[in-house]
Amino acid sequence: MKLFTSIFYLIILLASLLSYCLLKKEKRKQKPTAKLPPGSMGWPFIGETLQMYSQDPNIFFASKQKRYGDIFKTRILGYPCVMLASPEAARFVLVTQPQLFKPTYPKSKEKLIGPSALFFHQGDYHARMRKLVQSSFSPEASRKVITDIERIAISSLESWSNGQVINTFLEMKKFAFEVGVLSIFGQLEKKYTEELKENYCILEKGYNCFPTKLPGTAYYKALKARRRLNRIIGEIVQERKEKKMSATNLLGQLLNYKGEMGNTLSDEQIVDNIIGVLFAAQDTTASVLTWILKYLHDDPKLLDLVKEEQMAICESENGEKQALTWSKTRQMPLTYRVILESLRKASIISFTFREATVDVEYEGYRIPKGWKVMPLFRNIHHNPEYFTDPENFDPFRFENPPKPNTYMPFGNGTHACPGNELAKVEMLVLLHHMLIKYRWELVGSSNLVQYSPFPIPEHGLRARFVKDI
Ligand code: HEM
Question: What CATH architecture does domain 25-106+348-381 belong to?
């Protein structure tokens, strides 16, 4: 009996030992073998935020890339981040494996724009909204509004040439806002445009401020303006519904939407997406236009060549100025390359943010779930391996297409900019009229950069416009 008991205990002991070893092996198997990318996380919580913001952020990124390579870790604003400075890594996150990374914005900003705006989402809802936005800003749609864009461009330029010094960036913002409103709503009553402008301005001021709801603060005022925008856009929506207007502009597309089950979009989804598009369209286009003026001013020979190209379009009209057409905007190869090069050199969207939704392994490195991931567009656009002599402004480099995935001023993959065609066309139209009829001189110009939050020339590039008789 004693022998049986001993054998029994021995078997139990051996079985426990065996399962312990197996479990340990299994655990070792599950334990991630890949290491975190190189880099430094800085101080607890704040990480390297101060280093990044106390100097030009581009210098911060470039020095890190030089020290650690194309993939490195850091901690910014309390978040652990992995920065990616190679075209392949950016493509992995944005194009080939976007389902592993979700868009990520602070809740305070999401509240101001509206949580249903497409760029906060991924998956099915994002795809449906994106289709609507994309078709509203496609080349075909932009072609239809070209005459209206031209009217806005001509009247903007007239208003700048009264002898006063203008803040170029602020004036370009007004231009881009009007084009944005046009392509979202089509023709809109002046009272609505004014109300939208006034409240959108307040909203914008609060966007980059500390998000406190204390009365009197910029964020508090922005939240109140956001509620007023709901009401204003709600009224426009109601009117369009009553008039049963079928239109190809964004509002028309949003109103006509019918899902597979016949469901329509809620008013909240419509308003959030309209404000989201206005937000995405205005400062981006205005910053790039401001840089174009600076780059052209700094290179008189290039300016003459671009003017020549634009004058040739007028000459082909046999002395009588005719409206710009889509096909005429396709006859501006040098002006177009100036736009492409300005987008590269200024790289106004220096990077974007995503968040890893699971533990991800890339090139032998581990990106833990919850970490922020930042493809660094500017570093790629300024890498001499992809763009020779990258600090030199040279539109002729675009006579040959850039290497695949090295040129991403409009992003890449599932969230790439659906407004890029409209942005390029509105820039071409404004530049055409500016170059054939106006000269501009810069006032107190310097080479300093200001962040608004996009980089723009200091003081928004103060300039005086003169109309050539
Ligand atoms: C020169 C001007 C512009 C630049 C440089 C620009 C750049 C970008 C970039 C880089 C992204 C991708 C961001 C990311 O992946 O996180 C983006 C997205 C977006 N842009 Fe633009 N953009 C410009 C003008 C416009 C215009 C004129 C519109 C609308 C009319 C617009 C609407 C959007 C929207 C709605 C998104 C979000 C797309 C999505 O999440 O699926 N953008 N833009």
Answer: 2-Layer Sandwich (3.30)
